[in-house]
Amino acid sequence: MPFDYKKEYKEFYQPKNKPSIIEIPAMTFLAVRGKGDPNQENGEYQTAIGLLYALAYTIKMSKKSDHHIDGYFDYVVPPLEGFWWQEGREGIDYENKADFHWISLIRLPDFVTKADFDWAIEEATYKKKQDFSKVEFLTYEEGLCVQCMHLGSYDEEPVTIAAMEAYAQAQGYVIDINSSRFHHEIYLSDPRKTAPEKRKTVLRHPIKKQ
Q1: pLDDT tens, position by position, 143-193
Q2: Which end of the chain is more exposed for a tag (fewer CB within 10 A), N or C?
Q3: For residue 63, how far is the Cα from the chain centroid?
Q4: 88-118: string of b/e by CB count within 10 Å (b at 16+)?
Q5: Spacing of C-alpha 39 from chain mean position
Q6: Could you write out the three-class secondary structure of the chain?
Q7: Which residues pair with 27 in a beta bridge?
Q8: What is the pTM of this model?
């Protein structure tokens, strides 16, 4: 059976729908940065997702190529994630999606090196006839966070976020969103196939001691 990060690391991908405190270690990602409404048809965000998945599957299927990755094991491509913020604003204003800045992400297995990433960029560029120059090899340590499973539409996230912030405060923490620590979402449901009220999204906010 392929290694499934969602099942093997349930503390990161399958939290309960009640807030909890967690320490997130450094992880490596494929990442694309952008700005604008994620719902815009054929917009920058949707283009970014296409680039991420094309590259993620190029790396996953490297086992069938001439490129050998040391330590490779078969795995399920981890879920899409996103860091979100709006300039000059604390928190998120869901009514003004055009103001979103974002970093879209897909986690990479630890065995993938920068050299493997560079190979995948070259390979995908050749095979897909696309420009993958916007995709980054990003290592990020999120650190101490409060997180919760959100059940429902993305526009209803403020209710879950309020519960997360109240829980963090009760535990002696404050939310620590800044220019290098972000509102974080992990998408466990495909919005093309899942009704809004049934979507599962991990919500995560960085925190620090009061």
Answers
A1: 999 999 999 999 999 999 999 999 999 999 999 999 999 999 999 999 889
A2: N
A3: 25
A4: eeeebeeeebebbebbbbbbbbeebeeebbe
A5: 17
A6: CCECHHHHCHHHHCCCCCCEEEEEEEEEEEEEEEECCCCCCCCHHHHHHHHHHHHHHHHHHHHHCCCCCCCCCCECCCCEEEEEECCCCCCCCCCCHHHCEEEEEEECCCCCCHHHHHHHHHHHHHHHCCCCCCCEEEEEEEEEEEEEEEECCHHHHHHHHHHHHHHHHHCCEEECCCCCCCEEEEECCCCCCCCHHHCEEEEEEEEEEC
A7: 140
A8: 0.95
Alpha-carbon distance values, 179 to 35, 62, 98 (Å)? 15, 35, 19
b/e code 174-204 from CB counts within 10 Å (16+ = b)? ebbbeeebbbbbbbbeeeeeeeeeebbbbbb
Tokens in use for 105? 């992400």
Phi-psi region of 172 (alpha: psi -120 to 50; beta: other; left: phi over 0): left
Q: Residue 210 in contact with residue 172, Cβ under 8 Å?
A: yes
Closest Cα partner for 109 from 198, 34, 16, 5? 5
Six-digit token string for 124: 């995908």
Q: Which residues contact 141 (CB under 8 A, 6 or more apart)?
A: 24, 25, 26, 27
The two structure tokens encoding residue 162: 């309020």
The pairing of strands 183-187 and 200-209 is antiparallel
Structure tokens at 80: 């899409």
